[in-house]
Every structure is written in structure tokens, then in C-alpha cells.
Amino acid sequence: MSVPFIILSVVFVLCCAAMVFAILAQKKRSAGGMGSVAGMGNVAGSYWDKNKANTTDGKLEKWTKIGAVLIGIMSIVLCII
């Protein structure tokens, strides 16, 4: 095995562990019952929905998306190497 492969593998495992932590740290979301299925959910949105990006949950959600993309790219690179 080459040194870059080993280094990238270690970084990949650390990113996977961070991704698991970010997912488990998020609060559980409720589906909203049948109202959300029938289209009778909160259409206008609330103050909480509009400012969610500034909360801890919003930041964790953003980092989860970034981590997912990073893990996808690194897995492709590891397969090529």
C-alpha cells in the first residue's frame, strides 16, 4: 500500500466518525402527522423555520451535508487509488 492511500484512509475513517456524531447529535424530527402528508402543514413557515440556519441544529444539518459530499468524493478517490 502506498502512503497517500493510508493517509487518505485514516482521514476517511475520521470523517465517517464525525459524520455519525453529527447525525446522532441532531434532534429527532416529527413528521407532523397526516397534515403534512395531505398538504395541510404550516405553509407560511414560522419564525423558527426561517431562522433555523443560525441554530445548532441548522449548523449540524449543514455540516452533515458537507460531510456526506466529502465522504462520497473520498470514497471515489480511494477506489481509484
Summary keywords:
mainly alpha, 81 residues, elongated
Structure description:
The protein is mainly α and 81 residues long. 69% of the residues lie in helices and 0% in strands. It is built from four helices and no strands. It has helices at 3-25, 34-37, 47-50, 56-80. Helix 1 packs antiparallel against helix 4 (56-80). The longest helix is centred in the last third of the chain and has 25 residues, at 56-80. It is elongated. The N and C termini lie close together (10 Å). The model has no long low-confidence stretch (mean pLDDT 79).
Q: What is the element layout, followed by pairings?
A:
Layout: H1 3-25, H2 34-37, H3 47-50, H4 56-80
Helix pairs in contact: 1-4
What is the gist of this entry?
By secondary structure, this protein is mainly alpha-helical. The chain has 4 helices and no strands.
Number of strands: 0
The largest sheet, given as strand count, sense and whether it forms a barrel, is: none
**Could you give the distance between the termini?**
10 Å
Given helix and strand content, the structural type is mainly alpha
Low-confidence stretches: none
Shape: elongated
- Fraction of residues in helices? 55-70%
Give average pLDDT, whole number.
Answer: 79
Which series of helices and strands comes N to C?
A: HHHH
Radius of gyration: 18 Å
Strand content: under 5%
Tally of contiguous helical segments: 4
